[in-house]
Records
---
Amino acid sequence: MVDYPLNVDGETLAVTALQMGNPNCCIFVEDFDALDWRRLGPLIENHRVFPERTNVIFVRVRDRRNLEERIWERGVGETESSGTCSCAAVVAAVINDKTDRSVQVHAPGGVIPIEWRDDDEVVLTGSAELVYSGKWPVK
């Protein structure tokens, strides 16, 4: 779905929905502070048009090579970063002619370089960082 008018709680939002191994719904915004994305995220995630629920990515295009995102991840809620969601944001931005195919994605968790190559492979590059470690008790 490209630029689909989705009615959410009496408000119509233009969404681009796509599969990136799981369902993703992208909404392009001008200003994160002007939109209550934390309220809309779970409403869209559980909207009837997405019977298996969906990730919701709010995307602000800075320029043709940079975008910002805020993520409401399916079954999780607000998420600082997600490779899958970032890839979906880039593909949605290219489909809507908002960015080039090679983009820096800025999320609260960091910056992810992503390229949608001409052979249709979507490649993200970056480091992984351990954010938690624990031990499972053995009985």
Note: The mean pLDDT is 95.
---
Amino acid sequence: MADKKEKKEVEVVGLEIGALLALVIVIAAWPSISAYIETIFKAFGLSDLFVQISSYFNIYGPEISSVAKSAMNIIIGVSFLVALFFLIGIIYSVEQLKHIREKEKEKYDLKVEPAYEADVKGNAVLASRWAQIQDHVSSDNPSDWRQAIMEADIMLDDVLTALGYQGDGIGEKLKRVVKGDMKTLDEAWEAHKVRNQVAHEGSAFPLTKYEANHVINMYKKVFEEFFYI
């Protein structure tokens, strides 16, 4: 509302200044304008009418000029005061608008707060379990790699439960997750599918140390997203 008022005041001041400039230009260029008007009258065969008008202005011109000058002086004086009034009004409105916005900022505090603090250290219990998983996957024993994946999947189940997702098993819980609520949903699904293969096939499932680390890293992304480790 205040912005519209300021814009309107600026437009009024601009119109007044423009009108004054136009009047000054007309007075200064009147001889040329008069000659141009005479040419137009002659072109339409109205030379006599132009002579009559010119005679009228010659008779009453000095009086009209005197009145016009007086009026001009009055208009300039009034316009200056009006322009000064609007200029002060604009400055006052801008300052009041700044004051209002500062009050709104103090009252409503429009800054968006994050859902969790950036310096959260994570869950100490899960962090300890994660350290054991890392020890397993760092081993040279393939059975330890499988154990690491199994334990990481159990952690995933606990995290999903803590986030409020219900269901019979991790698969059911992951189906209830909206992708926009969990950026690492694809990683969680892929890691869980590998865990199922490890659980069902056991040692028959081919698993290299590189693949084991890749799966554990996918679990890690999920846990880090929610600051659980």
Note: Helices lie at 2-28, 30-43, 47-108, 124-138, 142-162, 170-175, 185-201, 209-225.
---
Amino acid sequence: MSRRVLVVEDDPDIGRLVMLQLAELGCESRLIDDGISALAEAEATHYDLVILDVMLPRMDGLQICRRLRAGETHTPILMLTSKSSEIDRVLGLELGADDYLTKPFSMLELAARVKGVFRRAEQAAAAQNAAAPESQRIEADGLSIDLPRHEAQVRGQPVELTAKEFELLVCFARSPGRVFTRTQLLDQVWGYSHAGYEHTVNTHINRLRNKIERDPANPDFIQTVWGVGYKFGGAGE
């Protein structure tokens, strides 16, 4: 079945190249070059992925991401940011973007990211369909994760998590005590393991700790294994 991708990019040359690459991947795509029209389209029509530039006329990509995540739209979002704009990348991830690419990027890298998004979506759907009812919730020392509702609570208090923060937490909580390297986490949660992207894991873990730990500097849940990676310990371990 062909997947549908909304491309939001005001540079016509980049837009055409992205659409050509998506066609090579067997995707149907639509190109929109302004933010307000793109938001309306994303809210009204089902897409399997939104490729979203940050700098857009009428409404920027960060505002679009915020609006989509505040509503009922859970479509994966791949943001395109400029090389010099670290703040846009950080804000995009905090607002719920699933991944980002820094301009200029190669079409091979774009293809790898898009394939990773689709592969993770398939795996998540398969896991949800195959899971027994009792496995739809994870409980661990004050942490409660409701998988179908995509909700988490810590000591009875709801925690607002982005899509990637939630996936990362579930990855840890499903394998308590297992030590994950950054490369393994990149592969399992983001779907790629290219060298140089380990900082993506570090950033998400820091934000996740700030949301779920009593003392982020001395975490109970997501613990550092020095020289190796991270593990899920469970409070009080």
Note: The mean pLDDT is 85.
